[in-house]
Amino acid sequence: MSVLKVAPPITVTAFTIAGHQLAEWLIVSTIIYTWLQICLLVHKLWNDYRAKLVCKPFDDKGDKQ
After folding, report:
1. 4 vs 44: CA distance, rounded Å
2. Helix (H, G, I), strand (E, B), or coil: what is residue 36?
3. Using an 8 Å Cβ cutoff, are 15 and 22 in contact?
4. CA geometry: angle at 41 spanning 25 and 54, to 5°?
C-alpha cells in the first residue's frame, strides 16, 4: 500500500528529471484518455445499433390477418 502512495511523486520527479514538464504529460494523458472514452462510446453505440437491427420488432402494417 505504501508503494501506491509513493508512486505518483516518484513518477513526477522522474519525468521532470528526464526533461519533460508535468503539464506536457498531463496533456498527453488527457488526450489518450479522451480518445479511449470516445472509442468506447462509439463501440457501445455500434453494438446498440446492431442489436436493434437484429431484434427489430415486426411491422404491424403487413402482419395483420
Report:
1. 32
2. helix
3. yes
4. 160
Under-50 pLDDT residues of the chain: none
C-alpha 14/C-alpha 27 separation (Å) is 17
pLDDT of residue 39: 95
All three cell numbers of 18? 528526464
The cell for 40 is: 468506447
Instruction: Pick left, alpha or beta for residue 19 (phi over 0 → left; psi -120 to 50 → alpha; otherwise beta).
Output: left
Length of the chain: 65
Q: What is the pLDDT of residue 40?
A: 95
Q: Which long-range contacts (CB under 8 A, 24 or more apart) does 21-28 make?
A: none
